Structures are given as C-alpha cells and as structure tokens.
Predict the 3D structure of the following.
Amino acid sequence: MSDAGEPLYVGAAWSEGSWFAVAFDREGFDHAAVFAEVGDLWVRYEEAAERVLVDVPVGLVEEGEEGRRCDDLARRVLGPMSDAVVTPPVREATRKRRYPAAQRVNERKAGRGISERAFAMSDAIAAVDELLQNVPEAKAAFAESHPEVCFRAFAGEPLEHDKAYAGGYAERMRTLAHHDRDAPPVVQAAAEATEGHEVAVADVLDGVALAYTAAPGAGELRRLPADPPTDAEGLPMAIAYRADSPLVSE
C-alpha cells in the first residue's frame, strides 16, 4: 500500500450498483477495491487522492434540446465504438426512481426521452452530482472520463471490437500493454482485488484504463472539449483522457 502522505491517482468504474476503484501512486499500481457507494469511495480516498476519474457524467444539462458537447466529441473520436457514449438525463430526471417518471421529466425539459442504459446509470450520476455539489474537496478532485475514450487515446486509433466480447478484451489488453508493459500484471492484481464482489471483467479493464489516465505518465492529461463549459452548478462538462496530442481539432 502507498505510504502515508503519498498522493494517489484513482480510476473508478461504476459496475452494476457498486464502484470498482483502481489506485496508482507515482510509482505505479498501488491497490484496487470495491465500494458500495461513491460516498464510501470518497471517505477512503479524501485524504490521499490527487485525482479521481469516474466513468459517469459529471456536469449535467438542466434543460434544452442541446446536449453536452463532450459527448458529441467523444462519439466523433470513438468511431465504431461511438454507441458506448450515453447521453445523460437532465439533472432533475436523474433523481427519479422510476423509468416512466424520468422519461416524462426529460421529455418536458429536453424534448427527448432517455435510454434504458442512461436510466440505469441515473443513481450513480445523481450520487456523484450530489457529492460534488456538497463537498468542495471532492469537487476539486473528481473529474469525468470515459474508458473507451481512454483506450482510444492510448491506442492512437479507434478500436474495432466491443469490450463485451473476447476480441474486445484482447484488443484492450494489447492497448494497455502497449501503454505500459506492466499492465497485464496490474489487470491481474486488480481483478484479484474484486474477490467476493460481482465485478465484470470489462469493468476491471475500465477501472485500470481510468487509473492509467489519472496517474502521471506518458502523454498529457487533456479534455474533450479542451475549454469546457460548466453547468448550472459550476461543474465542467468534459471528458478527460491522456495523449501526446489532442484527439480532435475543435
């Protein structure tokens, strides 16, 4: 484990009702852990985390037909994997417990419904949103990323295979190993840390990719868009990634 006072760089992937966190220090992989709530994750890392990248939307639209530009840019750079980007509900809709109610709110405020995938993420989106509104220290440490954008940046070109299938697993493992030759044992160690919890293989890869993006290393930490707008609560609407050069000309 990291020495006391050593900063940690955390990637946190939401995984079917829990959070899978992978923590790096300046030397590399430190540990991985599973948390029931994002608040639990913050309690664990609030004293040490230099940066926490989460794979749910941060910065939400209140109303209006225009969505978030970061989502549009992410779809542009992902090519065949563009469907991995989910358009988040408007802020009020993320607080609705039932899908029909969330649909009605989103249609009234944004002129469109929401996908079942977006609704399934709503609890996690709302929990992060409330944490960042209420805890200034968390607001300073947390940022949004997207694992597929991280993989795309590491690979240098769009990936071709869905992460749910063996070909996608192999493609992402190759991408991580190209970024860091120690990545395969990191993935193994991270996977072993999930013992006793139901965390999907793809979510382990996502957590590792987010952590590599959060931690200092090859390339520069960048954002889509480079100069992001903020939402009504002052949260930036941007997706972080690490690359030598920007993924898109804006």
Q: What stands out?
A: The beta strands are 8-15, 18-25, 28-35, 49-54, 142-144, 220-224, 239-243. The mean pLDDT is 95. The two ends are 41 Å apart (CA to CA). The CA atoms of residues 155 and 174 lie 9 Å apart.
